[in-house]
Specification:
By secondary structure, the protein is an alpha/beta fold. The chain contains six helices and eleven strands. The protein has a single domain, classed as Rossmann fold, CATH 3.40.50.300. Helices cover 30% and strands 24% of the residues. The strands form two sheets. Strands 1, 2, 3, 4, 5, 6, 9, 10 and 11 form a nine-stranded mixed β-sheet that branches. Strands 7-8 form a two-stranded antiparallel sheet. Strand 7 and strand 8 form a beta hairpin. Helix 2 packs parallel to helix 4 and helix 3 packs antiparallel against helix 4. The chain is globular and about 55 Å long.
Length: 237
């Protein structure tokens, strides 16, 4: 989670909070939103899929012209996701946004261009474009969205031969350009322990939370619990 401020004529203006939900496929990222109040939550899927909890299809209904109050939108295109976020930003009832499988915005775009025969600077420019599209979404979230919205960005991870875990993209060139973990002070890492989905929130690894927010290193996989902890921590501060 990060609270970003932007300078205005009247002083500092607080901007949206960004939280990262990271883990392997099937690790419980989407499952973690099951207890969020759906009437106040907007779900963006980069790939259409069934939600992994009962009643998900009733809680999250597609946004359409016929249903302008829908709370589910599907697209893997950065420009369209930006428009969706802009629309959500105008809906005062929306307090939480869950952007699922963020990695597909960059992976799918890369695969669509994989047969391009590019050399030298043109090849590097392709990766620059992919990184810029990804970064546009993140910058919009932290700089333009309302201060009363918490945006959860979920993504797969990669682990190298040395055990270092990072957000999944499509290669070192993009990883060198985007340091997404550094944009948030709340990074939740999903795990499965003794058949139970959990979040790793402290300790050694990519996960991190503000000092004093959680005494434990491992908590239940539940974003409602996380939100309650965030609100309590802010009041104590």
């Amino acid at each position: 989670m990060i609270k970003v401020t932007k300078q205005s004529e009247g002083g500092d203006v607080e901007m949206a909070e960004l939280s990262l939900v990271l883990g392997v496929t099937g690790g419980g990222k989407s499952y973690s939103l099951r207890n969020l109040p759906s009437e106040n939550t907007f779900l963006i899927q980069t790939t259409p899929k069934m939600l992994p909890f009962k009643g998900g299809d009733k809680k999250y209904v597609k946004l359409t012209k016929e249903n302008p109050k829908g709370n589910l939108f599907v697209s893997d295109k950065s420009s369209i996701i930006l428009k969706a976020l802009s629309s959500v930003n105008e809906r005062e009832e929306i307090k939480y946004v869950f952007l699922d499988d963020m990695q597909y915005t960059i992976i799918n775009s890369y695969l669509k261009r994989i047969r391009e025969k590019l050399n030298g600077g043109d090849a590097f420019q392709k990766y620059n474009d992919l990184a810029a599209d990804y970064n546009d979404i993140m910058n919009y979230i932290v700089h333009e969205m309302r201060d009363d919205i918490i945006v959860f960005v979920a993504s797969h991870v990669d682990t190298d031969d040395f055990g270092n875990t990072t957000i999944k993209t499509v290669g070192k060139l993009i990883n060198d350009k985007i340091k997404i973990e550094g944009m948030s002070s709340l990074v939740l890492l999903t795990d499965l322990i003794d058949g139970e989905y959990v979040f790793r929130v402290n300790g050694e690894g990519i996960q991190k939370t503000p000092f004093g927010m959680f005494e434990e290193n491992i908590i239940p996989n539940d974003l409602k619990l996380v939100i309650d902890a965030v609100e309590k921590w802010k009041k104590e501060d």
